[in-house]
Here is the input.
Amino acid sequence: MSAEPIMETVMKPVVPQVDPIDLLISFEKAAAPMPIRAEYLEETGIVPPQPDAEHSDVVAQLFLQLNSAGFPLAGFGMGFRAAHKDGRTQALLVPDFYVRHRKATDLDESYAKTHKGWYPIDMLGLVGEVTSTNHETNIGPKLRIYANSGVPVYVLIHRKKQEAYCFYNPESTGDDLTAGRYRGQVTVVLGSPLRLPAPYPTLDTAPFLDE
Here is the structure.
């Protein structure tokens, strides 16, 4: 991505809060005709910039590595929803790439229909982000949300620092998204193999040195 993301803090009004899904729909309508997919995390709506070519190349490489290693449910482009215990929307995220635990079931499709295109976050076995200008978003709020939601593995390619990370063993803290964390972490410089927990492959980060 080539520009700073647009962020809008969602305040808690006295009247019942608008579902963040509807908030993001309003963001997307306002951006028309430019296609965007907004996200919602830690009570903030984010309209990310369009990905640049280098960002897209890194994502494509990671997807191909996971797919060729025998993970046909590796993908990108789907949006996932985390919910509070009372059912309210807690977070809405569109990962750069991911591996799902399962194909979408009838229940998953019904969930997505009810929530206007957002699938349940428990479908994710591995999730990944590639930083652009939004480094803090990926290493901060997104990491905490993925951990708190129980996503087993989080892969992060930090283009500015020229490092790659694998976070694993998530620790959930219930409805307090800001306290989610991963107990395990592997860090390598770009160009070195990034070993992931079984059953996932070791990722080759050498192709990203020139990105």
Observations:
- The first strand starts at residue 6 and ends at 9.
- Residues 81 and 120 are 5 Å apart (CA to CA).
- The two ends are 12 Å apart (CA to CA).
